[in-house]
Amino acid sequence: MLAFNERVLAQCELPWVPALERLRYLTIVSSNLDEFFEVRIAEQKENLKALAAEHSPEAEPLRESLELIASHARALVERAYRLLNTQILPSLRDAGIDLVNGAELTPAQRRWVKATFAREIAPVLTPIGLDPAHPFPAVANKGLHFIAELRSKRSTSKTSIAIVKVPRSLPRLFEIKDKIPGKHRSFILLSTLIETELASLFPGRDVVSDSQFRVTRDSDLWVDEQEMTNLRHALAGELRRRPFGRAVRLEINADCSDSITALLCTHFKLEPHEVYRVDGPVNLARLQALAEAVDHPLLRFAPFTPGQLMADVADEQIFAELKRGDVLLHHPYQSFDPVVRFLRSAVMDPNVIAIKQTIYRTGAKSVLMDLLLDAVRRGKEVTVVLELKARFDEETNINWADKLEQAGAHVVYGLVGLKTHAKMVLVLRKEGNAIRTYAHIGTGNYNPSTARFYTDFGLLTAHAEIGKDVAAIFHHLTSLSQPPKLKHLWWAPHTMKSNLLAAIANEARAAKAGQPAVIMAKINALTDEAIMAALCDASKAGVRIDLIVRGACCLRPGIDDFTGNVHVRSVVGRFLEHSRIYYFENGGKPNVYLSSADWMSRNLDRRVEVATPVLDGTLLARVLDEALFAPLRDNSQAWQLESNGAYRLLRPTGRQKPIIAQQLLAEQLGQPAAVATTP
Predict the structure, then answer these.
(1) What's the pTM?
(2) Is 500 exposed, middle or buried (0-12, 13-18, 19+ CB in 10 A)?
(3) Among 678, 666, 679, 668, which residue's Cα sits nearest to residue 304?
(4) Is 475 part of the annotated catalytic residue set?
(5) How far is it, in rounded angstroms, from Cα 591 to Cα 180?
(6) Active-site residue identified among 421, 440, 463, 578
(7) Which residues have C-beta within 8 Å of that of residue 38, sequence separation ≥ 6?
(8) Which among 132, 232, 318, 486 has the fewest CB atoms less than 10 Å away?
(9) What are the pLDDT digits (tens) for 524-535?
(10) For residues 543 and 428, what is the distance between their CA atoms, to the nearest angstrom?
């Protein structure tokens, strides 16, 4: 996770990445680190607590590991702030966009800040002085606060402490309107604005010192599915407690006094290595507001318009079009609109009698969910397998469950103990005396917004046997019947892992027999021990293995006796690489699968996942070219994993032409525009 964020942060250092896009990468790293602490570090802290209570000898090594992780995380944070202060903000300033701090305010700007604070901000703030009648206020997860050390103007000795919460209801960014003409635009963060006027909140007292602080808490939800009667109600109760889980990280300003730091550590029960001093605004993710506030084409990536498939096919002809052949969609290079149109056609078509869909993350506003609600109102049978435990989307999914159930849809929450992560839509249409199936199977979520910047594949198909497999999975998810045997689809936790292991072993046998043997995969993470062991065996047998792993990869390549034939790279660019593709040479008759599953134990053993074969030869060639060959040719935004575990950013050598895979695909599939300036 930390290594992946180092690669994302490196985008801020690439000279051809525009300044506002560098800022956006910086905010992505900040958000990713939040989740890393909220979930991964929180989980390990709970493990440490349990081991320590048992006086286990494993407790001390885990404690040391957490301290080492903290050291790496601190270095990453320091690098992020250094890039902000020495490269990104100066670049923006040179372009006429100034994010000012309190010390840089001109007299005119100070007057504007003072008036704005008094008019729009001070009335909303509630300073709380700490004493026996005013205990330390509740501090919610990731909420921004100020802590101030105060001294009475009449006394020079005794000090007191006050806390000021920064309300989430206020804008995080203000443009300073100082009435001075010019090309520059000046912005100020809410936190800077408050800090500048903080003393005015405490008349009769001097502010001896102050600091922003922000606490990250354990945000994982825990429910015992075996002991509950209603998962939705149980999760709703847990959501109310989430903001006040156990503290796992404290962020403070770099100049925060030792005494204030100690007070905060004591209150939140944190150790020194869990404190992060930052040289700038706490919570860099809030700087996304600046990137959104400025419309400056030269500071952004060139505009990109996705390609439009089936644009000349009327909605009422979509099912006839699918009968003629499968349709492959590659987002965001190709628009997500055909998926929306597919569902809309099913809703409007009087011959469609039922629609079934899985939902993992769809967003608070969703045209797809609105269409499902419309389908219910039109009298169609609508079944939704809605995953309530999609982390940080639980509340959104609970709200959709309420709406769907009230409308009359069948809503189920998957299987006890398993998250439903598969991406499937099934449409049942009455044609003559038979019912025909039409399906969409994808690698990414049913969210048109994220489909604009996540790379994913989707297959629209009228293939009868694939439709039968999809229908069987839905039947299992809703009826709790025995897991069915499928003809084409691999699915977790039942057959996907065993089929993967069998396919890997098949390549190893081919290599030993002197036949061509190749494994290629594009996934987000590789951590499953059984899969890695099988890949080692295949490598030793002589199988060529090319892996494109965006995030965590626990398999080190290039170790002669084990992984000498394994090659691993990670591509980081304008779009988030998200698709999962598996390729096996299979004796010259390649098998290619689109999947929702990474090669992680949680995906293969503890989730409902689906992988569908690409049966059409033309579409199979497209998947190979776009998902595998293009990233494997990238020599400008691809990182190669070395045998020592370090990643190296590839660069064109000699007379090599710079190749950026995402740019190539945008030009090939889009309408078209460059993804990045050529390095």
Answers:
(1) 0.92
(2) buried
(3) 666
(4) no
(5) 65
(6) 421
(7) 141, 216, 217, 218, 219, 220, 248
(8) 132
(9) 999 999 999 999
(10) 42
